[in-house]
Design goal:
The protein is of the alpha/beta class. It folds into 2 domains: 196 residues, Medium-chain alcohol dehydrogenases, catalytic domain (Quinone Oxidoreductase, Chain A, domain 1, Alpha-Beta Complex); 130 residues, NAD(P)-binding Rossmann-like Domain (Rossmann fold, 3-Layer(aba) Sandwich), CATH 3.40.50. Helices cover 25% and strands 28% of the residues.
Amino acid sequence: MIQAYAANKQDEKLELFEYDPGQLKDEEVEIKVEYCGICHSDLSMVKNDWGMSEYPLVPGHEVIGTIVAVGDRVKTLEIGQQVGLGWFSHSCMHCEWCMSGNHNLCLTAEQTIVGRYGGFADKVRAHEEWVIPLPEGIDPAKAGPLFCGGITVFNPIVQCNVQPTDRVAVIGIGGLGHMALQFLRAWGCDVTAFSTSSDKEAEARELGANHFVNSRNAKEIEAVANSFDFILSTVNADLDWGMYLNTLRPKGKLHFVGVVPNPIQTNVFPLLMGQRSLSGSPLGSPITTATMLDFAARHGIEPVTETFAFSQINEALAHLEAGKARYRIVLKH
């Protein structure tokens, strides 16, 4: 039996929950959970914000733990390895997207907390292809958020072919943005932080920003017109996107990883004249995730975290919902 924390109904507090996972599938592994990050997506699933939650719901998709059982056909992992598991837990392995190394785009990919029980538990299961061993140099107590927030901001660097010589900007210095600053600085870029909180400037610079722009000040944004090759938007807010498009250089890209609540409003003319573009991306593939972990270990990159005991899970979720997390929350057994 697996002991977990579950929401029994929409928007309810999590309670102790026990379930029988059944026989381990041939290509699955069972992970003893040591740490699990709390992502805003967990909160969205508890609240059924996306209309796809099934109850009882066991959230948790930033898992760090040790493999304690492997299926008969598992070839790449073994008992005793310390590993991580993120949003995806399985992909078909034979469609054009999987076969081209884009498993994260598989149309039948399974999510760790959608239609199955996640990592707010003592154990969790997943297919081997999405379970990634931790390299040396990664602190397991802080690694969980790398498997969602971290790969969410690292994947665009790879997919959009960001160059070390590029001038880039990050909108929002929060759970995603604070990791994006670290990755982009280590990548070699000249990095600007856009934030509505002027009191975050010192921290943004410490994390990797070379420059800081108060995004509540239109004149400061206008002053950096035609400056950036790439802008990464990590915020879940509606902004004046036309103003940000004007800060792009010719062929520049405004890329979204934050879920903007409403349709993006902008004129096409700035896109045409500067050959600029809008784009977005999900989390990365298993190989991109492994690459990110190696890169993070090499450069000493890790999320800024707060730690709660699993027994404090509802307190931790309330802390996140209140916007008080700085910047990611990790649960510890």
